[in-house]
UniProtKB/TrEMBL annotation:
Keywords: Cytoplasm, Gluconeogenesis, Lyase, Pyridoxal phosphate
Predominant cellular place of this UniProt entry's protein: cytoplasm
EC number(s) reported in the record: 4.3.1.17
Name of protein: L-serine ammonia-lyase
InterPro entries membership: Ser/Thr_Dehydratase, Ser/Thr_deHydtase_PyrdxlP-BS, TrpB-like_PALP, TrpB-like_PALP_sf
Pathway this chain belongs to: Carbohydrate biosynthesis; gluconeogenesis
Organism: Neocucurbitaria cava
Species lineage: Eukaryota, Fungi, Dikarya, Ascomycota, Pezizomycotina
Presence of the UniProt keyword Lyase in the record: yes
A Pfam family hit: PALP
Length: 328
């Protein structure tokens, strides 16, 4: 399956939400379990469309570095398009996530390095050159910093406006999690396409994976010394330069929350909506609770519309949710 339209239900079951109308953009329902299916799938399709030589096309093998979710999206899309995909993951990636990538049909899953940066560097500088030397047409798939990837993610915004309806007021704010910034760039690009470039966007990170917030604080593109958050899917130590550029707009608000709050978002979403997501997504959902959204955007009214991007993610289980519930 390729990326498709995801649901946009309103969230009404929680008594905490009294300040505005909340809509959940359910990207967890994408084929790979996350929004990554949009951007990664679009990159693969765009690249194959450029390849007119049949022999070259048959030799194409996609390679991507990932904490897991981009890898899953790459495998799903490559399988649909009839090409193999190899995934490079850092040593911090859980066996649970690796098993999911293998089960999805990856040609291989390679573990290397203590961070995504190390895994990505090894992939580009060692693995891909060796594959090309063996006669493959090895294609590097950028997990977040690429215009084709952003084009794919931008369709999310177009869908939101379509689903709300032409006679409805546009949303007052869109909330999204930020790792490397691919989803964020896509949302900003999508808002330009629907002629609402100044719509409020909340760019949410966890403490210990707050590379965007760090860059904004320092006034220049900056790199975290290490990723210390449990939200490893947000584990890009440096965001895409375009994400940093977008984040400096007055319509964008950077928000950083703790791992504990991210876990809370996961547990509450599971309780209220029966939806399981990982902390990288839960941190955005957590804005719905305990008055956080109203605190950040005090001008919101009960009629205001806020879209929460439920970006998904597969690094979650009932066991983890149970542990987080017990530790509250």
């Amino acid at each position: 399956m390729q990326a498709g339209k995801s649901s946009l239900p309103s969230k009404t079951t929680s008594t905490d939400i009294i300040h505005s109308q909340i809509y959940l953009k359910l990207e967890n329902l994408q084929p790979s379990g996350s929004f990554k299916s949009r951007g990664i799938g679009n990159f693969l399709r765009a690249h194959l469309a450029k390849s007119t030589n049949q022999n070259e096309r048959k030799a194409i093998h996609f390679y991507i570095s990932s904490g897991g979710n981009a890898g899953l999206a790459c495998v799903h899309a490559a399988t649909v398009l009839g090409a193999p995909a190899t995934i490079m993951v850092p040593k911090s990636t859980t066996e649970y996530m690796i098993s999911k990538v293998r089960a999805a049909g990856a040609a291989d899953v390679i573990q290397y390095g203590d961070s995504w940066v190390e895994a990505d560097t090894f992939l580009r500088e060692t693995v891909i050159p060796k594959a090309n030397a063996k006669g493959e047409c090895a294609i590097y798939v950028p997990p977040f910093d690429n215009s084709d990837v952003w084009d794919g993610h931008a369709t999310l915004v177009e869908e939101v406006f379509e689903q709300l309806g032409p006679n409805e007021q546009p949303p007052d704010a869109i909330v999204c999690s930020v790792g490397g910034g691919g989803l964020f760039c896509g949302i900003m690009q999508g808002l330009e396409k629907v002629n609402h470039p100044d719509l409020q966007v909340l760019a949410v990170e966890t403490e210990g994976a707050h590379s965007l917030a760090l860059s904004l604080e320092k006034g220049e593109l900056s790199t975290l010394p290490a990723i210390t958050s449990i939200a490893t899917s947000l584990g890009a130590r440096t965001v895409a330069p375009q994400a940093f550029a977008y984040a400096q707009r007055s319509s964008v608000r950077s928000v950083v929350l703790s791992d504990a709050v991210a876990k809370e978002g996961c547990v509450r979403l599971a309780d209220d909506e029966r939806i399981m997501v990982e902390p990288a997504c839960g941190v955005s959902v957590a804005l719905c609770y305990n008055g956080r959204l109203k605190e950040i955007l005090p001008n919101l009214q009960k009629t205001s519309k806020v879209v929460i991007t439920v970006c998904g993610g597969s690094n979650i289980s009932t066991k983890l949710l149970g542990e987080w519930t017990e530790s509250k």
